[in-house]
Design brief:
Blueprint: E1 51-54, H1 58-69, E2 74-77, E3 89-92, E4 95-98, E5 104-105, H2 109-114, H3 117-120, E6 122-124, E7 128-132, E8 139-143, H4 149-152, H5 163-178, H6 181-185, H7 192-199, H8 203-218, H9 227-239, E9 242-245, H10 250-257, E10 265-266, E11 271-275, E12 279-282, E13 287-288, E14 293-296, H11 300-306, E15 326-333, E16 343-346, E17 355-358, H12 359-362, E18 372-379, H13 387-402, H14 404-407, E19 411-418, E20 437-439, E21 442-444, H15 454-471
Parallel strand pairs: 1-2, 1-14, 2-10, 7-16, 14-21
Antiparallel strand pairs: 3-4, 5-9, 6-9, 7-8, 11-12, 12-13, 15-18, 15-19, 16-17, 17-18, 20-21
Helix pairs in contact: 1-15, 5-9, 7-9
Pfam families: Amino_oxidase
Protein name: Amine oxidase domain-containing protein
GO molecular function, one term: flavin adenine dinucleotide binding
Length: about 475
């Protein structure tokens, strides 16, 4: 696989490493704190001839920042009490808890264009992964052979894949990095599982490494996700770094929100009905006029409730269960049982843990001084088990990884259940994005209308704003 850029050294991979900010250069923008204040009130008058944006996740924020750059007035209504959608971080007793396992890929072109990377103070992951293969076995280290060739030699004889598998990973990396995006997005489409078989990967490396790694990205252990999306993400992994913002993944949304005009955002305002000619009606009965148009930037299930016609505009897919849910559990510990900023994957095929890592190894700011934050991710909803039951089971399972005595002192901090972690990305898909226009003066954006990535959400939001401006004859 392809991993973040990190200078090679002779240090053993399980010895302490010091995380330093990643030197990524990007155009300068205004920095934003994780916690931001939106200067808005329910009593603020809506500007005459304005647009309305429904939803304050990444897509809605992208649409809003683009309209701001065009000096187009708008009101953004958000149902919750904060902006960011699924891209959020809570501060609990000094710990920074991202709402679900999320890693930022620095090679996304729209992210590089829109975000101020230095202000995010990105902290890189180690360019590799540790694979738990089963009780009584050591962790097997996999490193990027192009960035850490000497350390990669230790993986040649590991049972995680065959030698041809490891050569094939490198060849797939080179091909992905050299393939233009339009070629990836227009290639014949199948599932990721079928695509990996066609590429020639053995069951060993698929089951022990690729399946848990990709399940952590797509929340799809069956690997039914589109081969186009796999290739697109694989390319970004090849060209960039995996990282976390120093103040949590929510810092991305905070940075965008800080650019919006005062009074343009209304929190705790849920849209109940949309009429492009009449505007957006809230669940309180109030109507917000949207003479310039309405941009719907909410998650797919909510978008289809507000706009029932959307379901007929998306290609019908085979009737099969395609859950994209995840549960993320956080624990406090006194010490990290692995010292590198590295992802640990469950390659044993047993248990409920998919992946985990010691977040403070990546960014020490994720916990108070002297404490360690442990992040554990499960794939699925686990609706039949309560939080305490799940936490106990996770601790027991990880006791088999590290030793029961090592994890017994961990303190459960919080559990996040993300019922809709991603839209359905099974074939057929349109990762290049659909036309945002769904009616006269009505536009849709979000990762369900493009690719299910940070970049897909940002691109779709910008395109919706561009379409609105063009349709209204506004300067762009």
């Amino acid at each position: 696989m392809v991993w973040p850029n990190r200078p090679a050294s002779s240090r053993h991979p399980l010895q302490p490493a010091t995380a330093t900010p990643m030197p990524v250069h990007a155009p300068h923008c205004h920095a934003a704190a994780l916690r931001f204040t939106v200067a808005a009130s329910a009593a603020a008058p809506t500007p005459r001839k304005a647009a309305v944006i429904v939803g304050g996740g990444l897509a809605g924020l992208a649409a809003a920042t683009h309209l701001t750059s065009l000096s187009v007035p708008f009101t953004l209504v958000e149902a919750s009490d904060r902006l960011g959608g699924r891209v959020a971080t809570d501060v609990v007793d000094g710990y920074r808890l991202d709402r679900g396992f999320q890693i930022f890929l620095t090679a996304y072109p729209e992210c590089r264009r829109v975000l101020d990377f230095p202000a995010l103070r990105l902290r890189p992951f180690y360019p590799g992964a540790l694979v738990f293969a089963g009780a009584g076995e050591p962790f097997y280290l996999l490193s990027d052979p192009f960035r850490l060739p000497l350390r990669s030699l230790s993986a040649v004889l590991s049972p995680v894949g065959t030698l041809p598998d490891k050569v094939l990973v490198g060849l797939t990396r080179l091909r992905a990095a050299a393939t233009p995006d339009d070629a990836i997005l227009s290639a014949p489409e199948t599932t990721t599982a079928a695509h990996l078989r066609r590429l020639g990967f053995s069951p060993s490396i698929v089951e022990r490494f690729l399946r848990p790694f990709l399940a952590g990205i797509f929340f799809d252990p069956a690997l039914d996700t589109s081969s186009r999306l796999f290739e697109l993400v694989f390319k970004r992994l090849a060209l960039g770094d995996n990282a976390l913002p120093e103040e949590g993944i929510g810092a991305i949304a905070s940075q965008l929100a800080a650019r919006l005009p005062a009074g343009s955002v209304r929190l705790s305002s849920r849209a109940a009905a949309i009429d492009p000619s009449g505007g957006v009606t809230l669940d309180t009965g109030e109507t917000i006029p949207g003479e310039l148009g309405v941009i719907v930037a909410v998650e797919q299930p909510e978008a289809e409730k507000l706009l029932p016609q959307l379901s007929s505009m998306i290609p019908e897919k085979p009737k099969k269960k395609s859950e994209r849910s995840t549960v993320c559990l956080y624990f406090s510990a006194d010490r990290a049982l692995v010292q590198d900023p590295i992802l640990l994957l469950n390659g044993s095929g047993k248990g409920i843990v998919n992946n985990m890592f010691f977040a403070t190894n990546v960014a020490p700011s994720y916990a108070p001084p002297g404490k360690v934050l442990v992040s554990v991710s499960l794939v699925g909803s686990f609706a039949g088990r309560d939080d305490a039951e799940l936490a106990d089971e996770v601790v027991r399972e990880l006791g088999g990884w590290f030793g029961a005595g090592e994890v017994a002192s961990w303190t459960h901090l919080r559990t996040y259940r993300i019922g809709f972690a991603q839209p359905d990305q099974t074939p057929p898909t349109t990762p290049a994005g659909r036309d945002p226009r769904v009616g006269d003066g009505l536009y849709v954006c979000g990762d369900h209308w493009c690719s299910a990535t940070f970049d897909g959400a940002l691109v779709s939001g910008r395109r919706a704003a561009e379409a609105l401006a063009k349709d209204r004859g506004l300067p762009s």
